[in-house]
Structure formats: structure tokens, C-alpha cells
Amino acid sequence: MTALKVRGLEAQHGLLKAVRGVDLDLQDGERLALVGANGAGKTTLLRTLAGIHRASAGTIEFDGVDVTSTPAHRRASMGIALVPEGRRLFGSLSVIENLRVASAANRKGAWNVDTVLDAFPQLKPKIKAAAGSLSGGQQQAVAIGRALMTNPRLLLLDEVSLGLSPAAVQGVYESLATVVKQRTTLILVEQDLQRTFDFAERIVCMLEGGVVATGRTDQMTRDEVMGYYFGHRV
Ligand code: ATP
């Protein structure tokens, strides 16, 4: 079944059109990666899907429902969860409090404090620590865990490895491997192309706000994707 159907989506920052005429289809359980240079519009697209940024044109259908004008908190309770770039935790709250805040959305599903801590075992000894006192990798784990606590049907992950050490990135992706066993539909923005190929089933290349190519990761090469990245159009 189609989880997400986006048609002609546009989003602006003032006069600047950051997302232009984007069409996107995502099947239930599919893992899609958005790839493109800095400023290609990936973050704006994710924020527009989550309802944090307003669409200036086009439509977003989620599970067959038009959510284009639905406010962010309603989209969250319908099952769209964003792990934002920069994590945005409640730094003075403990790990467990950060997780519990999110469970207020209260959708039923496999994720609760126990299953999140099983997926992110590095958080177990830290549940009472202030989130702001944790390492970058641990904070990212809390940010992903917080999104999972809402039992999302669509998980949007924006640059989860940004600014982390290689070991921390490895830890985050090992936990994400546990997450995808639940067949959660997700869209990932990741600068590391190898990780993108390893993790996603399909890639969408963006350039200057538009989609310039899409393909299955087992049918595309890294060189092809790099070509789109640096500006070839189809
Ligand atoms: P990055 O990897 O740098 O996050 P991105 O592909 O996610 O890049 P966006 O952050 O969505 O791209 O940016 C798309 C365009 O919108 C860029 O030209 C950027 O400069 C512009 N932009 C992004 N945020 C704002 C903002 N808050 N105000 C004005 N312009 C913005």
C-alpha cells in the first residue's frame, strides 16, 4: 500500500523556492534516502512533510488522507515523526523524561521505553542523566528513541550522523538496523553515500529543490548518484 503520495510539492523561504514541484511515492515499509548537495532542499522537504514548514503548492497524502493543511501536531498523532537535524532535545530533562514526553502522542505499537532502551542499549546506564550532558551519539539515540516512542508509521531522519564520531555513527546505524526490523516506513537524509546505499532501498536525488533522479539502490551506482549530486539533470 502507498504510505505517502506527494504531488507538485513546493515550499519557500520568503521568495526563495527551496522545494520545487516534488513528486514522491513511498510504499509501506519502504526505506527511502534523499540525496543532494547542501541547500538542495532536503531538510525543507522533510519539514514540509512533517507540517513544520508550510507547503506553498502541491499535495501530501499520508495513508490516503490529504494532510497538506494538517498542523504538525495532528500529523504527529497520525504517525509522522521527524528526527530533526541538530536533535533538539530537552537538555535539562533526563533521558527517560525526553522519551516519555513523546509518548503523550500515545499511538499503539511496539515502541515503549523498554523496547527503545533495548534498541539503544547505550542509553540504559544513562536514563536518569540530563540529556544535555550526554555525548553526541547518545543524544542522537535519544532523539531517535523519542521519535519511536510515538510509534510512527513514517519516520523522517534528518542527518542523524552529522557531527558524530565514526564510532558513534556506527552505533546509531546498528540501532537503526534494529528499528527497520519493524518495517517502519522511513525517509533518511544522510551525507555519507556508502551508508545511504547500505541502508536505503531507494534513492531520490535532489538538486536545487527538485527531484532529478530516483532509483533502487541495487540498480544505481555511487558514481551515477554523485553525478546527479553535482548537477547533471535527467
Ligand atoms: P543542508 O544539507 O545544508 O541542510 P538541504 O538540502 O537540507 O541542505 P535546505 O536546508 O532545505 O537544504 O535548504 C534549501 C534552501 O533553502 C537553501 O538555499 C537554503 O539556503 C534555504 N534555506 C533553508 N532554511 C532557510 C531559512 N530558515 N531561511 C531562509 N532560507 C533558508
Automatic annotation (TrEMBL):
Biological process according to GO: L-amino acid transport
UniProtKB keywords: Amino-acid transport, ATP-binding, Cell inner membrane, Cell membrane, Membrane, Nucleotide-binding, Transport
InterPro entries: AAA+_ATPase, ABC_transporter-like_ATP-bd, ABC_transporter-like_CS, BCAA_Transport_ATP-bd_LivF, P-loop_NTPase
Flavoprotein listed as a keyword: no
Pfam entry (one): ABC_tran
Listed GO MF terms: ATP binding; ATP hydrolysis activity; branched-chain amino acid transmembrane transporter activity
Signal peptide: none
Keyword Nucleotide-binding on entry: yes
ABC transporter domain: residues covered: 4-233
Family under the similarity heading: Belongs to the ABC transporter superfamily.
Name the UniProt record assigns to this protein: ABC transporter ATP-binding protein
Organism: Pararobbsia silviterrae
